[in-house]
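Box 3.1. Reading complex inputs
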Amino acid sequence: DAGVIQSPRHEVTEMGQEVTLRCKPISGHDYLFWYRQTMMRGLELLIYFNNNVPIDDSGMPEDRFSAKMPNASFSTLKIQPSEPRDSAVYFCASSLGGREQFFGPGTRLTVL
Amino acid sequence: QQQVKQSPQSLIVQKGGISIINCAYENTAFDYFPWYQQFPGKGPALLIAIRPDVSEKKEGRFTISFNKSAKQFSLHIMDSQPGDSATYFCAASYAGTYKYIFGTGTRLKVLA
């Protein structure tokens, strides 16, 4: 079975550009999570969805970040405009029921 | 505000030895405590988890010990192997939510 799929795996962009990260959760899972991992802040939850509905977005750093889940098999995390401090590894995770979360391989974002 | 404190930051163990990683939490509203394992370039993977009504849980070589009164829990890896070399994260979530608060991670190296 395919796990969580994220694209792109690596993204390098310049400050001020729009960045869109994509995630395909495991089929049948009803929860989807977006995390960010940095050396300074560790692993932190940005937002999570249940049945495509955002439940908790308290971790979204600011209005430059937005996330959508238009259907059960696809989600995006958008940063507009991007800044160098957004450089991090972004993980998407999915879960059936919410507890056991399966992480994708991550997208390494570098903002120059 | 660090709600889950993890130690040590790094750990070196001989093959066959016992690896012990500790976490302490502050908020008694936490009701689920998972441990995740992360290899370089990969997403975290759930290893084992425990609820506060249980003092110990064992799965293979991995054991969680939980001390509710002290608000501490630990991961024990018995018969540590070089393949266990990875970063380990403890986490906690509040009752009624699936928002994990992660510890800062422990980088484990098992010498052959």
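In summary: Chain A touches chain B through 24 residues (CB under 8 Å).
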